[in-house]
Design a protein that fits this description.
There is one protein chain. The strands form 2 sheets. Strands 1-2-3-4 form a 4-stranded antiparallel sheet, with no helix packed on it. A two-stranded antiparallel ribbon has the order 5-6. Strand 1 and strand 2 form a beta hairpin. It is built from 7 helices and 6 strands. The chain has about 200 residues and is an alpha+beta fold.
């Protein structure tokens, strides 16, 4: 639905890659994307139901019957995006820094690899409908540079090695459901105090 036709409580959920629709009297959230199919002239629309939007309770996620866990890393990647993304993009002024490269740089920093199985460990995987092609030497060099810049940002922001390692572990352990459109995590008191100590958010 068009944004101006939605009630106020449903508008925040209509974001890039997501659509809100009125179905049988309730507003429902869908993840939408498109892909090329051989033999078809136009891209094929793919959509999946995420949940129902309640005026008072917000998003009520669909019940998942599968036993496959849907929890993925969120805390560390979100922290990096909030605290270091702008600085790193400025550092890359002589090189292009596409969003995909930045995300893969974060994955490489967190896990040491950018294979699909590592990408799927993080909430950042929601931005990829398929495994990105990073076979080019220039792309790989850019991703490695971003990963090293993230490491440098952490070392500069948190000079104490033990504090830095501990913060990284605590952040990496913060997980959310991959199907949540606008995830929110709360820091423990211990983690919050450490971040305040280094004036980080």
């Amino acid at each position: 639905m068009k944004l101006d036709l939605l009630p106020d409580f449903a508008k925040p959920f209509k974001t890039k890659g997501f659509d809100v629709r009125l179905v049988r009297g309730s507003y429902q959230l869908f993840k939408v994307s498109s892909k090329r199919v051989e033999g078809k002239k136009y891209p094929v629309l793919e959509q999946s139901y995420i949940g129902t939007i309640d005026p008072d309770k917000g998003l009520l996620p669909k019940k998942v019957s599968s036993l496959t866990p849907t929890l993925v890393e969120y805390g560390l990647s979100h922290f990096i995006l909030c605290n270091f993304k702008r600085k790193i993009q400025r550092s890359m002024f002589n090189h292009s820094c596409p969003e995909q490269s930045f995300i893969l740089g974060v994955i490489l920093f967190m896990y040491g690899h950018i294979q699909d199985r590592f990408i799927r460990l993080s909430y950042l995987s929601k931005d990829f409908t398929k495994t990105p092609d990073v076979t080019g030497l220039a792309a790989l060099k850019r991703i490695k540079k971003i990963s090293l810049l993230i490491k440098s940002c952490f070392e500069e922001a948190i000079p104490d090695n033990a504090d830095r390692d501990y913060i990284l572990v605590l952040l990496r352990d913060l997980k959310v459901d991959i199907n949540t459109p606008k995830p929110c995590v709360s820091y423990s008191k211990e983690l919050s105090e450490l971040l305040v100590k280094y004036k980080l958010k």
